[in-house]
Amino acid sequence: MDKVFANGMYFNRPLPQAPDFVIGNVSINKKQFIEWLNKQSVNDGGYLSIDIKESKKGKPYCELNTYQKKAEQAEPREQDYTQEREDSIRIEDVPF
């Protein structure tokens, strides 16, 4: 899958004089970012995720997270499990 960069959004590492708790800052070109944002799909909750990554050359960049969960196999329902247990245990074998 092709990378989708967050156009108009830029992550910068903190300045040397910044306190240790500052991880970095995000700069947004409002016009570019809104144009890009309006073209993107959102999840069921109305969100989209943007990952902050580091290039091979060590430069940070912002990329749209396009991960989608694969259809998961349904867990056995409780009634299915109960039915299975009823088939394997006879009431006459219960000691109480």
Give a short overview.
This protein is 20% helix and 21% strand.
Structure description:
By secondary structure, the chain is α+β, with helices and mostly antiparallel strands. It has one domain (1-68). It contains two helices and four strands, in the order ββαββα. It has helices at residues 30-37, 78-88; strands at 9-12, 25-28, 49-54, 60-65. The strands form two sheets. A two-stranded antiparallel sheet has the order 1-2. The protein is elongated, with a radius of gyration of 25 Å. It starts with 8 loop residues before the first strand and ends in an 8-residue tail after the last helix. The mean pLDDT is 84.
SSE layout:
Layout: E1 9-12, E2 25-28, H1 30-37, E3 49-54, E4 60-65, H2 78-88
Antiparallel strand pairs: 1-2, 3-4
DSSP summary, beta strand count: 4
The helical percent reads 10-25%
How many domains? 1
Q: Report the total helices.
A: 2
Largest sheet: spatial strand order = 1-2
Mean pLDDT reading: 84
Give the uncertain stretches in residue-range form: none
- What is the chain-wise order of helices and strands? EEHEEH
| Main sheet makeup | 2 strands, antiparallel
Beta-strand content? 15-25%
Q: What general form does the structure show? A: elongated
Structural class: alpha+beta
Summary keywords:
20% helix, 96 residues
